[in-house]
Design a protein that fits this description.
about 325 residues, alpha/beta, six-stranded mixed sheet, two-stranded antiparallel ribbon, 10 helices
């Protein structure tokens, strides 16, 4: 009797595991059969009007596995996707610096915005393009998840990904990278992070750190997974002290979420499925309208306002 019961229990456990494995394998094999976007859809029009080049940093030990995952999901919605390998050990700042220099020299024309992300960052490109649409890419501005620093405007988290305008990339290359007093080659030697270093270089040449939160103060760029944010999560509570703005008490994040990190292989597949294949019967999603583009005067008024903002997070 006992032996039969043990065999039965083991059989059930193995059966459940095999079923879960089959379900995940099936999902993984079919998830990339993306629905064809209608030719006249707002997303297609936005893709051609807000052109984003994506520079994704890769690990030398990756051997293409994580690159393939980005290519098959959010990376194919970039106007151009470039993988930039970290050639200098423990010097991500030098790698990003060289990447931005290469992009400025080879790929500057034909793109409006320049995203820097990691292979384990998931980006909802349609939301990023819609968010950027209203801003003039010739203005010197960049967006991301804003953190406090020992310089006034702070910097954007590399883990969440940050995006530079054409004007910002131009200033970075023509002024910051060519003047060691503005942007030293040895910033990594100060034990500061790459994103802090790029943020300092941008700050020193007058590139404005823009506001990327929504109207409720909810974050659009996340350096953590969405399920790890909120007052009940210890990791987020510890991390929130470094934010530039005092975090809200609301759960999770903006309904127009743009990015999160670190996403593993299964998270990439699941988000790709839920965002681009899943339909809920009886609840058709009405397309969001594009926000009005800021004219020259409104854009400069916005930049002037953001340049005077002071951190309210004293935690």
């Amino acid at each position: 009797m006992i032996r039969d019961a043990v065999v039965l229990v083991l059989g059930l456990i193995i059966g459940v595991q095999l079923t879960e494995y089959w379900n995940y394998s099936y999902l993984q094999s079919t998830i990339l059969e993306r629905k064809n976007t209608k030719a006249g859809s707002p997303a297609v029009g936005l893709f051609n009007r807000t052109r984003v080049l994506c520079m994704v940093l890769t690990d030398p030990l990756d051997y293409g596995k994580e690159e393939a995952k980005v290519k098959s999901t959010w990376g194919r919605r970039c106007n151009k996707l470039i993988f930039w390998r970290n050639k200098q050990e423990n010097n991500t700042f030098a790698t990003v610096r060289q990447g931005f220099k290469h992009i400025f020299e080879k790929h500057f024309n034909g793109h409006d915005w320049f995203l820097r992300a990691d292979t384990d960052t998931f980006v909802i490109m349609e939301n990023l393009q819609r968010f950027l649409y209203r801003y003039d890419p010739e203005s010197s501005i960049y967006f991301g998840h804003r953190l406090k620093a020992d310089f006034a405007q702070g910097y954007m988290s590399g883990e969440a990904g940050y995006v530079l305008s054409r004007g910002a990339l131009r200033r970075l290359n023509l002024f910051a990278f060519k003047n060691s007093n503005l942007c030293s080659h040895n910033l990594n030697s100060s034990l500061k992070s790459e994103d802090w270093g790029i943020g300092l270089c941008l700050n020193n040449v007058g590139v404005i750190a823009g506001e990327s939160r929504d109207g409720l103060g909810q974050e659009r760029f996340l350096p953590v997974m969405p399920q790890r944010i909120g007052p009940g999560w210890t990791k987020w509570r510890q991390y929130s002290g470094s934010l530039y703005f005092n975090p809200t008490s609301r759960a999770c994040c903006s309904s127009s979420l743009i990015s999160f990190h670190p996403a593993n292989e299964s998270a990439f597949d699941l988000w790709e499925f839920f965002l681009h294949r899943l339909s809920v019967f009886g609840y058709p999603m009405s397309p969001l309208k594009l926000p009005p583009r800021l004219d020259f005067r409104a854009m400069h008024a916005q930049l002037r306002y953001w340049s005077q903002v002071v951190s309210d997070n004293h935690g």
